[in-house]
Amino acid sequence: MSKVVVVNRIGGPEVLSVEDRRIGEPGPGEARIRQTAIGLNFIDTYQRSGLYPMQVPFVAGNEAAGVVEAVGEGVEEVKVGDRVCYQGVAGAYAEQRLIAAAKLVPIPDGVDDRTAAAVLLKGLTAFYLLFKTWPVQKGETILWHAAAGGTGLIGTQWAKALGATVIATAGGPEKVALARQHGCDQVIDYRAEGFAPRVRELTGGRGVDVVYDGVGKDTFEGSLDCLRPRGLLVSFGNASGVVSIPDLGLLARKGSLYVTRPTGNHYFGQRADLLEGARALFGAVASGAIRVEAERTYPLDEVATAHRALEARETTGSVILLP
């Protein structure tokens, strides 16, 4: 039997139900893995709350690391005993699970399971944002919201390694200090001052080349005000609510701006793309360009507490659930 966390109805953290389920043998193309560390991500809360529709009941979670216990017919990607991780595949809140072997990524020597579970989804998000959505060039200036969060800490460090000037926002002195410790050139405490006027001041009135915004509704229009003419707003999350643009003319009035809403599913639908991103990510971790923060852990039984902390923005860096 395997302990799993099931969402039987849409709602708040209280709907997360810890249950025991029998995990069968892997079918063709599948592997069974025993999970050792599970990553907590905002997408988990979006699915639980119904913001991202899911068919209930479902096992929550989208990222984990573990060891291959068994493989089904035709599996060539992994073998029994391999240390692996994955992201973007629902069903991660579990001690054991079945998963398509093509979705598994080998964990390199020198990277422990907790680090792999902490970094893969957030790190691959940073990869496509920085290398694919807007390929950041040396000398460009970017703005990254929520820089003290899991994705923010990874993305801002990586952007600095690419030679960008990084302006960031964070909420409160402790998070501001954490973002600075991870290399951001300027960090704005959005609780103490308006970030858009400050960004204009820091850029001599020009604005930034690109804004990476995982906060959503609360920061959207202010993010537009931070961009140079023909700059790009990359809206990749909804932590404060869903963004809508009732008047596209707004983009024209603010400088012929561009807006995009990317997701990892469209960047990593093919295994070759997934492995490309993972190689780049783990290479950046190995080189020291990215230092992974994953100090807060919760037992899987306390998953509801972990969700409440994440949604209240009480966490910094990556949060790990331990089966």
Radius of gyration: 20 Å
Report the span from N to C terminus: 13 Å
Q: Which class of the largest domain in CATH terms?
A: Alpha Beta
What share of residues are in beta strands?
Answer: 25-35%
Full CATH superfamily name of the largest domain: Medium-chain alcohol dehydrogenases, catalytic domain
CATH topology name of the largest domain? Quinone Oxidoreductase, Chain A, domain 1
* Number of distinct helices: 10
Overall helicity: 25-40%
Low-pLDDT segments: none
| Annotated CATH architecture of the largest domain | Alpha-Beta Complex
Class from secondary-structure proportions:
alpha/beta
Major sheet, described briefly? Answer: 7 strands, mixed
Number of β-strand runs: 16
Morphology call: globular
Based on the model shown, name its key terms.
single chain; 323 residues; alpha/beta; Quinone Oxidoreductase, Chain A, domain 1; Rossmann fold; 2 domains; seven-stranded mixed β-sheet; six-stranded parallel β-sheet; 30% helix; 27% strand; globular; oxidoreductase; NADPH binding
Can you describe what's shown?
The chain is of the alpha/beta class and 323 residues long. It has two domains: 2-120 and 268-322, Alpha-Beta Complex (Quinone Oxidoreductase, Chain A, domain 1), CATH 3.90.180; 138-261, NAD(P)-binding Rossmann-like Domain (Rossmann fold), CATH 3.40.50. The chain has helices spanning 42-49, 113-133, 150-161, 173-181, 195-202, 220-224, 249-253, 264-267, 271-287, 303-311; strands at 2-7, 16-21, 30-40, 58-59, 63-71, 83-87, 96-100, 105-106, 141-144, 165-170, 186-189, 208-213, 227-235, 258-260, 296-299, 319-322. Strands 3, 5, 6, 7, 8, 15 and 16 form a seven-stranded mixed sheet that branches. α10 links the parallel β15 (296-299) and β16 (319-322). The longest helix is centred in the middle third of the chain and has 21 residues, at 113-133. The radius of gyration is 20 Å and the shape is globular. It comes from Devosia oryzisoli. It holds the Pfam family ADH_N.
